[in-house]
Amino acid sequence: MFERSGIYYLYDQPTDMRKSFHTLGAIVVSNMGLVLQSGAGFVFINRRKTHLKMLRWEGDGFSLYFKRLEQGTFEHLCGLDNYSLSYEKLLLIMHGIKTKKIKRRKRFSLGKPG
After folding, report:
1. pTM, full prediction
2. C-alpha 3, offset from chain centre
């Protein structure tokens, strides 16, 4: 379900975790203005920041990932550009690491051929 090359979006409002496929999908389309069947993962966190759901189109249907913390909270980021969330930041949130002061160190990468 979590792919390094995948695209993820975090809804910036607290979400009722009783919502399932249809209502979470409606939030993606109407509130976020995004395409539901794009293959991206759409992440939702509840008000207490103890529950997380991710909705994703798998090509032939939707999957819904759900995580409930027994202790602690998730970091719920606000003010993201277009709700966009990197795979790395999603993993940090899932593991309870604060992302506010994390600084990426410079790394070598091959430029795009062109």
Report:
1. 0.84
2. 12
Amino acid residing at 105: R
Which SS3 state, helix, strand or coil, does residue 83 take? helix
**Least confident segment among 18-22, 56-60, 67-71, 93-97:** 93-97
> Do 74 and 96 form a contact (C-beta atoms < 8 A)?
yes
- CA atoms of 18 and 82, how far apart (whole Å): 25
Question: Which among 12, 24, 114 is positioned nearest to 63, based on CA atoms?
Answer: 24
SS3 for 13-71, per residue?
CCCCCCCCHHHHHHHHHHHCCCCHHHCCEEEEECCCCCEEEEEEECCCCEEEEEEECCC
pLDDT tens per residue, range 25-37: 999 999 999 999 9
Tokens found for residue 101: 């002061």
Q: How far apart are CA 34 and CA 8, in angstroms?
A: 11
Angle of CA points 72, 18, 79, to nearest 5°: 60
